[in-house]
Write a structure and sequence with these properties.
By secondary structure, the chain is of the alpha/beta class. Helix content is about 40%, strand content about 20%. A hairpin with a 2-residue loop joins strand 2 and strand 3. The chain is globular.
C-alpha cells in the first residue's frame, strides 16, 4: 500500500492551530470531514471515534509523532490526513513524552483489519527516518509537505 493511495494534498494541514490533543483531534476531524465530503463522514462522529481510541492508549509514538486512528462505521475506504504542528501538541507519548509535531490520522472501515495494519505499518516506516521528519518540518508550504511525503513513499 502506498500513502499516495489514501492521502491527497487537500488532506494535508501544514500548520495545525490546536495546542492540545482534544483540540487537535477536533480540528483534524473537522478538516477531514469537510475535505472528504463524499465519504459520508460526520465531524462529531470522527472526533468521538478518535477520542475514544485515545482513551484506550495514546497514539503518540515518540520522536514528535502521533498516529491517531479509528474504525468508522459505514466507511467504505481508508481516509488519511497529515498535519504539522510547529509548536507541537502534547499527545501523551509514553515513550518520550515529546509533543507531536507530525500527526498522521487514519480512518478505516470497521472490517478492514488487514488494510488498517498495512497503512499503519507504512506510515510508521516513512516516519522512522529523522531526515524525512526534518524535511517535513522544514517544508515551506502544503505543496512541499505533500511532495516530500510522495517522494519518501516512492522509495519503498
Amino acid at each position: 500500500m502506498k500513502i499516495a493511495e489514501i492521502l491527497t494534498q487537500e488532506m494535508v494541514i501544514p500548520d495545525l492551530a490546536a495546542t492540545d490533543k482534544v483540540e487537535a483531534l477536533r480540528e483534524l476531524s473537522t478538516h477531514m470531514c469537510a475535505t472528504a465530503s463524499g465519504a459520508g463522514l460526520s465531524a462529531d462522529g470522527v472526533f468521538k471515534a478518535l477520542n475514544e481510541r485515545e482513551r484506550l492508549g495514546s497514539t503518540g509514538v515518540g520522536e514528535g509523532i502521533a498516529i491517531p486512528h479509528a474504525k468508522i462505521p459505514k466507511l467504505t475506504n481508508l481516509v488519511a490526513a497529515f498535519a504539522r504542528s510547529r509548536a507541537g501538541v502534547p499527545f501523551d507519548s509514553k515513550i518520550d513524552n515529546v509533543p507531536a509535531r507530525l500527526i498522521f490520522v487514519l480512518l478505516v472501515p470497521e472490517d478492514s483489519a488487514g488494510a488498517h495494519l498495512k497503512a499503519l505499518a507504512r506510515i510508521s516506516r516513512l516516519l522512522k527516518s529523522s531526515f524525512f521528519r526534518d524535511r517535513l518540518l522544514a517544508a515551506p508550504d502544503v505543496t512541499a509537505v505533500y511532495q516530500a511525503i510522495l517522494e519518501e513513499d516512492a522509495k519503498y
